[in-house]
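Why show two proteins at once? Because comparison is the fastest way to build intuition. When a single record is shown, students tend to memorize it. When two are placed side by side, the eye starts asking what differs. So, the first record is below.
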Amino acid sequence: MNDSGSSLPTALIYSPLGSNTQADRDLEMAGWSVKLASSDLESWTEQPSHIWVIDVSTRSIEMEQLMQELWEKRFSVPLMIVVREELIATYWQRLVQLKQDWPAPFQMLVAPYPLEELLLRVVFLTREGLGEGGVLVHGRFQLDVGRYEARYGDRVVPLTPCEFQIFRALMEAGGKVVSKRELLHALHGVEEHYDESVVKVYVNRLRNRLEQAGADRSCVRAIQGVGYRLDRG
């Protein structure tokens, strides 16, 4: 395991199986400094890291308690949950709660996965968490990814994490149509285990937020049978 150093990005990984998981092997191969975490969540904050990775590879009371504590405390650290496909149903409710309420960038990755998928997701999460995402502009809309701030004209639009991810995907498309599957991926990191009706719920919430800031709620336009696009406002 690499020694921590200021020149290396650092990942703090927790697995009930201990060391030598796929995630820590893959990140070490990619040049990351990897630290293994105990089940004592408070000790994690004493180990500076760019991202927390939790490997949900087995069902246990310890894992359920850890995920409950994560949800209750909501640390502002980018978080990735790596979960085996057969355990998604077991932890479904907690995963959804974490996705909705985690204050920092969050994604879920279903194992087994290709190495490139893990590395891409980690890079995106840490860049967003470190404020390197830049500012997106589309008409009167602005989205400062690094500051996690949306604006319509000179008015700030307060968004929840899920609303932010939907808005970001629409902003990045620059007026092009974004499919429901792509929006699901923006919300959860995967598409196939989620109901597309979830997208409609968050799109409507986003419309309400934009309308309260002075925009026309129809600026998030539904393209029947395809997805949504953001007009310039």
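Second record. Ask yourself what differs from the first in the token line.
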Amino acid sequence: MLERLDRYCFLHGIFRTIELGAGKDGTVYGTSRGTAVKVHARIESYTRERDIYLRLRDRRVRKVWMFNIPRLRDYDDDGLVLEMSIVTPPYLLDFASAFLDVRPDFSQEVEQEWQRNIQESFGDRFGEVMAALEALERDAGVILLDIHPHNVKFE
């Protein structure tokens, strides 16, 4: 993965700096031009996240509710690399597991468990998180399901 990322950086005249985060879908690094680059492990998560960032860009969605959203700067389909702005809290991040336009058909039990997990993670701020998710779906057709304190930050 680093070889693909370094190729992207070389072609764009930048270099990667510190690791900003890592997860099941890929690793995010800072760059010398003050952006973040995410190199994906799998094409499925890359394509999903790229398409969501393109939708957000097309609809000029930069903020949802009170949360900042990274803006897509560039991408490389061959290298599975996304380059985006770095955002400060409050923010929503990581769209690799999100859906466009069509909500997955989860059972009522799964939906309730998902909401319980969000409530446990965010406590009194549960309503704000849910309001942001509803606004994101309404304004951009993005259904963000991977909700936890690393992807949704208040401060």
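One difference worth noting in the second protein: The radius of gyration is 16 Å.
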